Amino acid sequence: MPMSAADLTSDISKSIIVEKPVPLDYDLGNLAAYDINPLPTPITEAILHSTARDGAQLLINQILSLPITALQNGTYAQLPEPTTQLPREKPLPKAKPLTRWERFAKIKGIQPKSRKDGKLVFDEPSGEWVPKWGYKGTNKKDEQEWLVELKENDDVSTDPRTTMKKERKEKVLKNKKQKQRNADEANGIKFPTSTGIKMDKRHPKLVEFVLMTSSNPTILLVDKHVAFIKALDSKKDELEYWLTEHLRLNGLYWGLTALHLLNRSDGLDRLEVISFVKSCQNSDGGFGAHPEHDSHMLCTVSAIQILAIEDALAQIDVSAVTAFIKRLQQPDGSFAGDRWGEIDTRFIYGAFNCLSLLGRLDAINVDEAVNFIARCKNFDGGFGLMPGAETHSGQVFTCVGALSIANRLDVVDTELLGWWLSERQLKCGGLNGRPEKLEDVWGGYELC
C-alpha cells in the first residue's frame, strides 16, 4: 500500500526513543533485530508499518551505540561478529581436486612461482605494455617479423613464420590435453601405461582422437547406462523434461532397445511401459508422442515397436492402427507423416515396419510405394526423401529397410550404393551422413 505524504511527515516527527514491553534481541553482525512482542488486533496496514518503523529505529539506535570511525569519505560503525548462523541456499562447494603437478609439488614442498611480474611486458619499439600471451602476445612476435634468420639446418623452401605458428599451436594443444589428463586423473580416471600408438603426422586428427579416448573405461559400464535410462523419466520438475515432450515415445523406444541390448530388459516396468504407450493412442488409430499429442507416423512406429518388444500387440486395436496408416498413403505410392501432408521416404519405411509387425502389409499398395522409392534413387546409388532430393544416409537406411521388408532389394544398385556408403568414412574413422559433413554417431548408426 503506497504511503501518503502525511504518513511520511508523521514518521519524521516521531521520537527516536522507542519503548517495547519486551526488549528486542539484536544480531548487529547480520543487521537483524528480533521482536517477539505480540501485534495489537485487529492487524492493519498502519500497525504493520508502525511496528516496522519502530523496529528499524531501535536497530539504528543500537548501531549508533557501536564504536564510530569518521573518515574523509564518510562515518562508519564497526559491526561485531554475527551471532546467528544463517542457512546456506546451496551446499558448500567441493574442494577443487589437486592436479598431478600440484600433488607432486605438495609432496616435494615446491612453492608456486611468484606472479609479481604480472601478465604484461613493456614493448620497447611501440612504447606500450603488451600481454605476454594470448591476443597480441609477445610470444607471437617472431611470427610477425618481416625478416627471420634461418638456422643452418632449416629448410629454405619453408616459411619459418608458418613453422613457428604451427609449433605454437601444437604446444597449446598439448597443454590442453595435459590439462584434461590432469583433471581426469584427479577425478579417479585411470590411464593405460602405454597406448601402443605411434604419432602419425600425416593424420593428426586420427592421433588426436585416439589420445582423447585413451582414458575411457576398458569395460562397458552397464549399470551406469541402465541408471541413466531409468532416470530420464524422473526429472519432471525440470523445464527440459516438458520441452522434450514431443520426443517422449520415441525416446522410450530407444531406451527400451538399449536395455534389451544390455540384457537388462527388466530395467523399466513392463506394465508401466505398456500403459504409457496405450495412453498415447488417439481416436484416429495413430499414436502421438505423448498423451494429447497429434498422431504421427514416426510415433506410431515407435509405439508398435515397443509393444512388439513387450509382446503386447494384442492389447491395442490393430484394425484402427492399420486404418490410420492406410489413410496416409498418397496416390503416387508415398506416405504422409500425418494429416498435414509432409512427404518423406522415412514414412514409407514406418508404414512397412508397422504393418509387417502387425501382419497387415496387405492393407496398403506395396508395389506403388516401392515404385516411389525407385523414383527417389539418385545417380550415386543412394536415396533422397523424395524424387530429386539429395542422397542422405538416413534416407538410405529407411529406403533399403523398406525394400527389404517388401522383399524388393532388386531395386538397389548394390555396387554403386556400396561405393557411396564407403565414401562416408572420414580420416578420423568416423562416418558422416552425406558429403562435406562432419562425422557423427547418428551417421554411423545409419550406415551400420
Word description of this protein:
With 448 residues, this protein is mainly α. Among the domains are: 73 residues, no CATH class; 226 residues, Glycosyltransferase (Alpha/alpha barrel). It is 42% helix and 5% strand. The strands form three sheets. The protein has a two-stranded antiparallel sheet with strand order 1-2. It has a two-stranded antiparallel sheet with strand order 3-4. Strands 5-6 form a two-stranded antiparallel ribbon. A hairpin with a 2-residue loop joins strand 3 and strand 4. The two termini are 69 Å apart. About 5% of the residues have low confidence.
Q: How would you describe the shape?
A: flat
The biggest sheet amounts to: 2 strands, antiparallel
Per CATH, which architecture of the domain at 222-447?
Answer: Alpha/alpha barrel
- Unreliable spans are 193-214
Q: What is the alpha-carbon Rg in Å?
A: 36 Å
Function: Involved in ribosomal large subunit assembly.
Family: Belongs to the RRS1 family. Belongs to the protein prenyltransferase subunit beta family.
Organism: Neolecta irregularis (strain DAH-3)
Keywords: Metal-binding, Nucleus, Prenyltransferase, Repeat, Ribosome biogenesis, Transferase, Zinc
